[in-house]
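Reopening this ticket.

The earlier resolution said the output was attached, but the attachment link was broken on my side. Pasting everything inline this time so it's all in one place.
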Amino acid sequence: MVNTVTITVPGTTSNVGPGFDCLGAALTLRNDFKFTPLQGEPECQIAVLGMEPGVIPGGRSQSIKLDSSNLVYQSFLKCYEYLEQSPPGVQIDMQVRVPFSRGLGSSATAIVGGLVGANALAGSPLTQDELVKLAIAIEGHPDNVVPALQGGCRLAATDAAGDWTICDVNWHPDVVPVVAIPDFEVSTEEARRILPKEYSRADAIFNMAHLGLLLRGLETGREDWIRSALQDRIHQPYRQSLITGFEAVQSAAIAAGAYGLVISGAGPTLLALTNPANASTVAIALSTAWNQQGISVQTKILQVDPQGAVVV
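Inline output:
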């Protein structure tokens, strides 16, 4: 067994408009997880540094404490359970940069960090396919954990047997993601609850067409295709009501040169896609529009990270 490993995992944006629960991209914003085996110590010791030192990344609730209920540690245990091995006691040190409960894949970094860290300590017996399967089983859907694990932009679908097929999606370098992270949270559970249980045939066809167009737009960088493709009828019309000032921020982003504005994950972070020349202007517009609603916001001009989880 190695003495210590550090896993760095990218945050993600998911859905990207019409790609509900199946499309996601890794972003240049990372959490780091250091795993040190303990001898004759408690089962786990956890320390958190960074943006929100009192909150566990991916903890799903601010009431989660620094104990064995932590999602990183629970994912660590799932790996050893899959390997049919007894887990070692472990010290987990986290450097947090992906904000908690904001729609940027914090829980995915926790799941992937725990799985990859355990696999590394065990001598890396698991394949990427096995790690993907475990990560999706823990998270429940693939759109965040797959790009967090593998990097880039990824589309996930099941085959006839129900197994996951992962497709890499080319993301043109002239398509720049700009995120606006407000100082409030949206509960993932509430964001799920607010969605209808059934959709019309027209809405299903609409989203299929726009997802296909979005994939081509991201690949080619064609502005007109992306502008049209970012429309959605599955989740955004319902979740907008949970995000204060959404329409004002959307209008400001488009006026500043964004191709469109979508909800990142379950929100409340909003994702604008634009070109390199307009990225700074769009970031300022996002911040100004939300400030005018009385909401503090942090904006970041990011890139799609081609690397997923990395063992340092």
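Reporter confirms the inline version is readable. Residues 148 and 223 are 26 Å apart (CA to CA). Residues 53-64 have pLDDT under 50 and may be disordered.
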